[in-house]
Amino acid sequence: MENMTAKIFYQSDCNLSLLDGKTIAIIGYGSQGHAHALNLKDSGCDVIVGLYEGSKSWAKAEAQGFKVYTAAEAAKRADIIMILINDEKQAAMYKKDIAPNLEAGNMLMFAHGFAIHFGQIVPPADVDVTMIAPKGPGHTVRSEYQAGKGVPCLVAVEQDATGKAKDLALAYALGIGGARAGVLETTFRTETETDLFGEQAVLCGGVCALMQAGFETLCEAGYDPRNAYFECIHEMKLIVDLIYQSGFEGMRYSISNTAEYGDYITGPKIVTEDTKKAMKKILSDIQDGTFAKDFLLDMSPAGGQAHFRAMRRKAAEHPAEVVGKEVRKLYSWSNEDKLINN
Ligand SMILES: NC(=O)C1=CN([C@@H]2O[C@H](COP(=O)(O)OP(=O)(O)OC[C@H]3O[C@@H](n4cnc5c(N)ncnc54)[C@H](OP(=O)(O)O)[C@@H]3O)[C@@H](O)[C@H]2O)C=CC1
Ligand SMILES: CC[C@](O)(C(C)=O)C(=O)O
Ligand SMILES: [Mg+2]
Ligand SMILES: [Mg+2]
């Protein structure tokens, strides 16, 4: 097992004043970008935003109080440059906009290790290269900060040219609220491999496939699709919320004995040794670069996102999506669809 003694840093380990006098450029204003920029601004930091001419987010970032520049101009003006654009676009943008404007002693930052770990970006030796990777979606990084809380983060230092890289990165983690929850020390490699594995096998790929298969099974057996949606999709959040609060044991305390008995009996029939075997293959494809190669190829100008777009279209047409729209209207307090339009 990996090092279980890796340090966790909290607010008292982080010195926000290390960011005094430093300009932070947030490149990208999407899920993570808007959250980091707004949280840092609310923490008193000097933040500018870098985008491309014609970006749909330019006016939004300005309306939310930021000076917005092209990525190249923002990089030139900044001491700390956080790259929060899509992983597959980072290498080309870095080469064109960031590299020519980097100065010795700058800090280049990432929220995910993909571009560095897979060698898409190779920064010069005289800059710090660090990562603060929130373990949660950008919109939650913002909403937790506003609630006085934070999303836990990973911190990693790839290059420490100034000798202060880790302390500066930790100050940044406090600025976005992550240190309120805890910041676990790791490496770019480990963050990249575990993050890709988690989102593919469990959080996004695994959970969505499980919910959809359950929904389909009930619908194919003739049950009302709205009932199937309640049972296999809607209620997932409520069960996961209990796990979030008190672990599996806490969740099982809240459910009936009938459900708990069925949980123990049936879980291993669904997630079998074959599922574990498939998980191991997924992990090995991530570790040896197979996934990164396939992803980058499809997302490249030559690939034209052919596979990505087809998969996205097919997923959007799933009957659960149609029923879901109707069911989600029932709970007017839900802001999920607002997120999609943000
Ligand atoms: N989504 C998440 O919650 C998490 C993401 N991460 C990591 O954070 C990073 C950002 O991901 P995410 O927030 O999902 O990205 P999004 O797709 O939500 O946003 C990308 C942003 O980058 C802008 N952009 C695209 N190309 C350029 C360019 N050439 N120059 C300047 N800006 C550009 C986009 O502009 P426009 O608005 O015009 O489209 C958009 O504002 C990735 O490394 C990801 O792995 C890490 C943890 C969680
Ligand atoms: C789970 C997906 C994620 O890794 C995240 C929100 O943490 C991502 O890349 O968006
Ligand atoms: Mg993640
Ligand atoms: Mg991820």
TrEMBL record:
Binding site for NADP(+): 29-32, 55, 57, 138
Top-level taxon in the UniProt lineage: Bacteria
PROSITE patterns with a match to the protein in the record: KARI_C, KARI_N
Binding-site positions, substrate: 256
Pathway where this protein functions: Amino-acid biosynthesis; L-isoleucine biosynthesis; L-isoleucine from 2-oxobutanoate: step 2/4; Amino-acid biosynthesis; L-valine biosynthesis; L-valine from pyruvate: step 2/4
Positions annotated to bind Mg(2+) 2: 195, 231, 235
InterPro entries: 6-PGluconate_DH-like_C_sf, KARI, KARI_C, KARI_N, KARI_prok, NAD(P)-bd_dom_sf
Record-listed E.C. numbers: 1.1.1.86
Domain KARI C-terminal knotted: 187-334
Keywords carried by this UniProt record: Amino-acid biosynthesis, Branched-chain amino acid biosynthesis, Magnesium, Metal-binding, NADP, Oxidoreductase
Domain KARI N-terminal Rossmann positions: 6-186
Matches recorded under Pfam families: KARI_C, KARI_N
Binding residues annotated for Mg(2+) 1, in chain numbering: 195, 199
Catalytic activity: (2R)-2,3-dihydroxy-3-methylbutanoate + NADP(+) = (2S)-2-acetolactate + NADPH + H(+); (2R,3R)-2,3-dihydroxy-3-methylpentanoate + NADP(+) = (S)-2-ethyl-2-hydroxy-3-oxobutanoate + NADPH + H(+)
Membership in a protein family: Belongs to the ketol-acid reductoisomerase family.
Record's protein name: Ketol-acid reductoisomerase (NADP(+))
